[in-house]
Write a structure and sequence with these properties.
- The structure is a single chain.
- With 173 residues, the chain is α+β, with helices and mostly antiparallel strands.
- The protein has one domain: Endonuclease, Chain A (3-Layer(aba) Sandwich).
- The protein contains six helices and four strands; from the N terminus they run H-H-E-E-E-H-H-E-H-H.
- It has a four-stranded mixed β-sheet with strand order 1-2-3-4, with helices on both faces.
- The chain is elongated.
- About 8% of the residues have low confidence.
Length: 173
Amino acid sequence: MPKRTYLRDGRAPVPKDPRTSAVMSRIRAKGTTPELIVRQALRERGFTGYRLHYAKAPGRPDIAFVGRKVAVFVHGCFWHGCPHCQPRRPRTHKGFWNAKLDRNRERDAEKADALRTAGWKVFTLWECRVKRDVGRELAGVVRLLATQRTAGSLTSAARTGAGRSASRRPRKS
């Protein structure tokens, strides 16, 4: 196998073991396993029509129901500092990792605040809990979407004229 060379831009420290660099290069930002689990569970419950990483919403939520203004973030425990499982931080290059992971948490809070200010409902799902019981994690999202669906069906019936009175225009005989 040919030796790989990785472009170093100076933002991250050079790992002591080259295997670490190879492993880190495979970490994805989109299409992660917890994200796929959540999307599959939403589809199974009949909730489709969401946008992935919707750029027009503040903070680019992982899953966005644009018309309903519902944003779902699916956070990885290590990268976003899960309050439930509290993953350990790396012991090497502590200064770099502490600054990076703390900034990730600050950015998450800023994104959620920006969405709420814009009138969105924000849900944060954690990797450890999604893997354990996705149905329980999605309960709040599903409940909100279901109530919006029933309210939406009532307003759409009124919009289409299904509830119009007969006195508006007489029928032709």
